[in-house]
Amino acid sequence: MVRLFAVFCLVFCGVAFAGELDQDMAQFRKDVLEINKSLLLMEEELLFPADTQVAIFVSLDVGKFFVPDSVTLKLDGETVQSHLYTEKEVGALMNGAIQKIYTANVKNGSHELTAFVTGAGPNGRDYRRAVTLDFEKGHGRQFVQLKMEDDVAAQQPVFSFRSWK
User: Fold this and answer.
1) Which of 21, 89, 100, 120 has its CA 20 to 30 A from that of 6?
2) Is residue 92 domain-shared with residue 149, that is, in the same domain?
3) How far apart (Å, rounded) are the C-alpha atoms in residues 26 and 157?
4) How many domains is the chain partitioned into structurally?
5) Predicted confidence band at 132 (pLDDT cuts at 50, 70, 90)?
6) Are residues 73 and 2 part of one domain?
7) Are 111 and 41 contained in the same domain?
């Protein structure tokens, strides 16, 4: 009887200990994820200080007259980013997603940003357009959005930049 009681105590304590261990592991995982998030934010702040940061975003409105295939960005004449779109990414953009395509450190002053956009235009024809933005980088972060929109009246896509701080 005493042996049975001892075995029962060992099993019960082992189960209780395992339950506590599971809770401790879950909390540990949560803490590690939180620390990782903080480290990533600090890394971005160090690599891209707010005073010199330029972030470029891409959005697609409707997509009835244009489906993007790729975007290539040139900043001050130098190619800085090229991106080929997957079907999932195009679907996300058509559903309202905004893609952060590029982040960089840029000196204050005048800059030229050019986007070369390729894809399928009206009636499935190959479509390639370029759009340019001359902007003045001042103190603080600079945000630029490449907007791909449908012009229903002309039944053509329209590409433009929007800049804000």
Assistant:
1) 21
2) yes
3) 50
4) 2
5) very high
6) no
7) no
Is there a single domain that holds both residue 42 and residue 104? Answer: no
Instruction: Supply the CATH number for residue 96's domain.
Output: 2.60.40
Q: What is the pLDDT of residues 69-120, one digit of tens each?
A: 999 999 999 999 999 999 999 999 999 999 999 999 999 999 999 999 999 9
Task: Please report the pLDDT score of residue 20 as a whole number.
Answer: 76
User: Token digits for 106?
Assistant: 């840029």
Determine the Cα–Cα distance for residues 156 and 162; give it in Å rounded to an integer.
19
Which amino acid is residue 10, in one-letter code? L
In Å, what is the CA distance from 82 to each residue of 77, 146, 163? 14, 14, 20
Spatial strand order in the sheet of 109-120 = 78-84, 67-75, 109-120, 126-137
Q: How far apart are CA 8 and CA 99, in angstroms?
A: 58
pTM: 0.70
Q: How far apart are CA 75 and CA 35, in angstroms?
A: 34
Q: Which amino acid is at 145?
A: Q
Q: Which of 115, 109, 106, 105 is nearest to 146 (CA)?
A: 115
Q: Which domain holds residue 150?
A: 53-164
